[in-house]
Design goal:
The protein is mostly helical and 79 residues long. 62% of the residues lie in helices and 0% in strands. The chain has helices at residues 8-45, 49-54, 62-66.
Length: 79
């Protein structure tokens, strides 16, 4: 006959471990997102004003456009 002991401490350690893993994953995704955004901003800043105009941006809109915060519809009719 075998006896299994329930150890609440072990389950707490496992749940803390999952929380730590989730925190690290969240941090890593945020880090990667920031790196990708920064690379895009650098690339856009290297473009000439004419090239930016061709894609419907001005220099002041680059950061917001990269982060998806720009409420911009390039093909919408302007009255």
């Amino acid at each position: 006959m075998s006896t299994t002991f329930y150890t609440p401490a072990a389950s707490r350690i496992r749940s803390r471990g999952r929380g730590l893993i989730a925190s690290v994953e969240t941090w890593w995704m945020s880090y990667l997102t920031r790196r990708i955004e920064r690379a895009a901003m650098i690339q856009l800043h290297r473009m000439s004003d004419r090239e930016l105009q061709d894609i419907g941006l001005t220099r002041s809109q680059i950061e917001r456009a990269v982060r998806g915060e720009l409420d911009h519809q390039p093909f919408a009719r302007q009255s």
